[in-house]
Amino acid sequence: MQFDLSPIAFQRLLAALALTLVLAPGLQRPALADGPLPPPVALALGAAGIPAAAAAVWAQPVDGQQPVLTLNAAQPMNPASVMKLVTAFAAFERLGPAHTWRTRIAASGTLREGVLHGDLYLVGGADPMLGQERLWKLLRRLRALGIKHIAGDIVLDASALRLPPHDPDAFDGRGLRPYNSGPHGLLLQYNTVLLGLFPGRAASEPVALAAEPPLAGVVIDNRILTSDAPCGLWYGDLQARLEAGPRLVLSGSLPAACGPRTWSAAPLPPADFGIALVAGLWAEAGGRVDGRVRPGVLPTASRELLGDDSPPLAEVVREMNKWSSNVIARQLLATLGAHSTIGDAEADTTLPPATPGDRSPVPDMVAGGARAAVALVAAAGIDTTGLVIENGSGLSRIERIRADSLGQLLLAAWRRPWMPEFLAALPLAGVDGTARGRLAASPARGHAHIKTGTLDGVRTMAGYLLDRHGRRHAVVMMVAHPEAASAAAAQDALLEWLWANGAP
Predict the structure, then answer these.
(1) CA-CA distance, 254 to 239, in Å (whole number)?
(2) Does 281 have pLDDT greater than 80?
(3) CA neighbor of 426 nearest in space, from 191, 89, 93
(4) Which of 72, 155, 157, 490 lies deepest, with the highest CB count within 10 Å?
(5) Which residues in 459-476 are b (16+ Cβ under 10 Å) and which e?
(6) Is residue 56 a contact partner of residue 402, using CB atoms and an 8 Å limit?
(7) pLDDT value at residue 503
(8) Distance (Å, rounded) from C-alpha 139 to C-alpha 280?
């Protein structure tokens, strides 16, 4: 007898069989440490063509004394975006969940009859979440202070962070994708322009565009057309490129069946993006500037006019982990470097800001942050053997961590006073964030707070799961294999097995 199953039907059959194995009699007790994989996990890996040697697994109750399951747990592997757990741990440990970043506005010269006869300074504090709305409010407050016309320049001071050159094309050649943006001392709107796309009713009709925020001097050339294709991977055909001008050219097609969608791009380096954004918002606020918007450093002879504090670190980490923001992760790692000296990653002193005419070597606060993160993890009693941190986001070919080290980090975080903030920042499987599509039809839905990660040849997952007996577990699974993209079913099978078989 022969059965012809579609790929979707086969996946459903596999999931049903795996869940049957999860709940089958005789499989109710957790596996011993260093034991074989649970049958549903092994089955799902085999169906994906992934050998057990390409996977690393670790699981332990948060109140337990030893793992209930390990496999290749001492092998350093690429964690992809799960590395953000390390960045979050180090940031909470060093800065605390209530830490904030302050952005300041200062001026030189005198104010007479609405005219500032001098320069205005926007001084960054490395805030990871200084978006269009907060910046607009700052500029509106300037107007309320009586400044309508700036006779000099608007100067953007990003010296809060000293950074090496960043090449957004280096990772995958897609430098206009927001996930490739680097950190910056005055990061604005995540260095991202949001593109609202509205397809027409029929094929070949133009797709209407609404771009936010306004970027002065940047022309957007929208060539996207409506298609009659089904709404699958709707952004797969969209392309963005930057031409001289600057001119952001958008091309490709969007299926009418998809309805309105939001796409995004990072058309400029952070310094240039900030110049275009501030110029655009100041003009929208009704302000004038005789000079130009340019980079620079706040002089000593200036007076502070007003300031604005970021959301606390707890909210920043939540934004980073719920939606896997690489630019926030890079910003946090650089902040850790800014709170450390060049030679001692654990010192309490802060590197001084740049000064005009400073010709000293520029310290790399990203590398300093990586050293600080490793030191903080080690100080928590976590084995850092094999730990490699490049940028803290997981968007890296060289970052590495062991599954048992990740597990130890999860257990250490569980015992910290900031544990609720750490846990709440993780996506809830089947409910929200980047894990909203996981365990959707499973009884374990809504029981796992997990951070996931994907790269070519890498699929990872780590977090906490509450089993059906009410016991919490820390769990890690990493896969490095050419077929790793198909490993989600095996990871879900592990979560389901742990949910069903966790010790009461």
Answers:
(1) 11
(2) yes
(3) 89
(4) 490
(5) bbbbbbbbbeeebbbbbb
(6) yes
(7) 64
(8) 11
Sheet of 154-157, strands arranged across = 293-295, 154-157, 120-123, 102-107, 303-309
The predicted pLDDT at position 363 comes to 72
**What is the phi/psi pair of residue 227, to 5°?**
-125, 165
Is beta strand 247-251 parallel, antiparallel or unpaired with respect to 219-222?
Answer: parallel
Cα separation, 138 vs 443, whole angstroms: 47
pLDDT tens digits, 442-452 = 999 999 999 99
Question: To which residue do tokens 């130890």 refer?
Answer: 408
Q: Can you read off the two tokens belonging to residue 471?
A: 């016991």
Q: 305-338 as b/e, with b when 16 or more CB fall inside 10 Å?
A: beebebebbbebbbbbbbebbbbbbbbbbbbbbb
- How far apart CA 128 and CA 161 sit, in angstroms, is 12
Tokens of 326: 């690489």
Nearest to 179 by CA among 257, 84, 95, 99: 84
Cβ contact 342:369 at 8 Å: no
- Lowest mean pLDDT: which of 246-250, 343-347, 475-479? 343-347
Closest by alpha carbon to 147, among 111, 109, 118?
111
pTM of the model: 0.90
Residue type for position 218: V
Where is 284: in which H helix or E strand?
helix 270-284
Distance in angstroms (rounded) separating the CA atoms of residues 270 and 193 = 12
Three-class SS of residue 116? strand
Tokens 């002065």, located at residue:
216
Beta bridge partners of 70: 58
